[in-house]
Amino acid sequence: MPERMNLDRKVFPKGSQPVVFGDQTTDALAGMVLALLGEVVVLKDRLDANERLLKAAGLHGPADVDVFNPDAEVRAHRGAYRQAIYDRVLGVARDRLLPEALAEQQAYEGEVARVAAD
Fold it and tell me: pTM to 2 decimals?
């Protein structure tokens, strides 16, 4: 049996930490995005393995998943949880790092709505 990873252990990079993007905040955000990308790739690999194991067991496989056509209820459910995830993940950056851009976008959208109503 393969050795299980110790998820309680904190992993920190060793050595110097150069600033690549000009400031530490941007570097930290870039690091977070890259770490998240790594997690998504692992998740995709595990999903692929599960689909292939199900196919080998005579159940559905990757091709069946590819052609799956969700009904309206499933699409609504997925839309709701996607929006919640987007709000959790991107909301911090939107609300803390880009408040001026958000205000400008809201003002623009308000002006477009006003002109469209005329």
Answer: 0.52
